[in-house]
Write a structure and sequence with these properties.
Number of helices: 8
Protein name: Serine phosphatase RsbU, regulator of sigma subunit
Pfam family, one: SpoIIE
CATH superfamily of the largest domain: PPM-type phosphatase domain
Structural class: alpha+beta
Order of helices and strands: HHEEEEEEEHEEEHHEEEEEEEHHHE
Keywords: Hydrolase
GO molecular function, one term: phosphatase activity
Distance between the termini: 115 Å
Helix content: 25-40%
Strand content: 25-35%
Length: about 400
């Protein structure tokens, strides 16, 4: 037969277990219903304060910056919002937690702490204080409840990270498709003009652009460009740039007007935050005249078969998009041209390094061209990239590589 005091004790234990089960039911039901992190935290806070014998609590949950304060209730002392991971030392054997906090912060008013682990990694720290000295607090249950909450929060964080990675993957895929559509599907291979391009992107989406537009039977435009930045922003800027260029070329052959309008369009769209290095060439087969503008790009190399010499095409202006109005502009011209080659390239080609940290460089490339003047573009590319690969000796490339070679008869 139980005495009154024993009955009272058993009743209190029963009531406490009933409250604990209610707390567990509320938090697990919210998790099963896929409630948001903020809702889960509010339910946990409510159950601790109402169903458990807790007056004050403070919950830090780990993220990429450290242990971040997620719940704070009933705390009078100043407490940090973030605790760096390296400032938290938990000795599992001795059961002591040592936290280095800046001067002015303190956890002294909180009498108990409970670390929350998952696979040997401390995911959270719960600080708490009981309502009174007489009531009991089941620390094992409180720790288990906290563990359920924190693992649910970690799973949500992982799911968000997975979704973000999927979003970025999709963005890169779209940008890559956009970029592929910008390049010409076929390059001419006829008696008047032979073209060969080698494009090696550093990543899935590069910042290089090349194009060749046959405006009429006697007129051809060709260009190469390098857009600042990578990924979707660079792909979109490149797409707008190509659309503007092709629209302008349909209505005019005036290189000065075309380049000035392109510069204004880029500057207006990006506010001077992005820029493009660009080379635009124009050749007229009828009068054998070459015109070009170099807007801050690596100068293409022009080779004459008859004179057995080469030169770089540097005349032009500064990079496009940096200024609202181009500060200077010069149109380069060459006349009476026949049987010549032009090699256009981006800086990724000459900025290749070998295992001695030597750069391939513009001079080395120009020297290679001089020893291989006016060869067929297909043959030139095959031989050159073998040399570049031998020079690099397995060192990873740091940028996109584009080489566009044209042979005019």
């Amino acid at each position: 037969m139980l005495y009154n005091s024993e009955l009272t004790t058993e009743t209190v234990k029963y009531q406490r277990k009933e409250l604990e089960l209610k707390a567990l039911l509320e938090i697990t039901q919210a998790i099963n219903e896929n409630k948001t992190s903020s809702v889960l935290l509010n339910i946990f806070k409510f159950t601790c304060l109402v169903h458990l014998n807790i007056r004050s609590l403070l919950l830090y949950v780990v993220d990429q910056n450290g242990y971040k304060q997620n719940i704070a209730h009933g705390i009078k002392s100043p407490i940090p919002d973030i605790i760096p991971v390296d400032k938290v030392k938990d000795d599992i054997i001795s059961g002591e937690l040592n936290i280095e906090v800046e001067e002015g912060y303190s956890f002294n008013e909180l009498e108990t702490y409970l670390p929350v682990y998952h696979k040997d990694k401390m995911l959270a720290i719960l600080f708490l204080k009981k309502k009174d000295d007489t009531g009991e607090l089941d620390l094992d249950f409180t720790q288990a409840l906290t563990n359920i909450l924190v693992v649910a929060l970690e799973n949500k964080r992982f799911a968000r990270r997975q979704l973000e990675q999927e979003r970025l993957k999709k963005e890169v895929e779209i940008a890559s498709n956009v970029q592929r559509m910008l390049f010409p599907s076929n390059l001419p291979q006829n008696g008047k003009l032979k073209a060969k391009v080698t494009y090696i992107p550093h990543s899935t989406v590069g910042g290089d652009y090349y194009d060749l537009i046959q405006k009429s039977e006697d007129e051809v435009f060709f260009c190469i460009a390098d857009v600042s930045g990578k990924g979707m922003p660079a792909a979109l800027l490149m797409s707008n740039f190509q659309a503007a260029l092709r629209t302008l070329l349909r209505s005019s052959s005036d290189l000065q007007m075309i380049v000035e309008q392109l510069n204004y369009t880029i500057f207006e769209n990006t506010g001077g935050e992005k820029f493009i290095t660009f080379f635009l060439g124009y050749y007229n087969f009828k009068n054998r005249e070459l015109k070009y503008v170099n807007a801050g790009h690596n100068p293409p190399v022009l080779c004459w078969e008859g004179e057995r010499r080469s030169e770089v095409l540097g005349a032009g202006t500064t990079i496009l998009g940096a200024f609202e109005h181009l500060p200077f502009l010069e149109i380069g011209e060459r006349s009476h041209l026949k049987n010549f080659n032009i090699h256009l390239y981006t800086d990724g080609l000459t900025e290749n390094f070998n295992d001695h940290n030597e750069e391939y460089g513009d001079e080395r490339f120009e020297k290679y061209i001089k020893t291989n003047l006016c060869v067929d573009p297909e043959v030139f590319h095959e031989a050159f990239f073998k040399e570049l690969e031998a020079f690099s000796n397995g060192v990873e490339r740091m940028d996109d590589i584009t080489l566009l070679s044209l042979r005019f008869a």
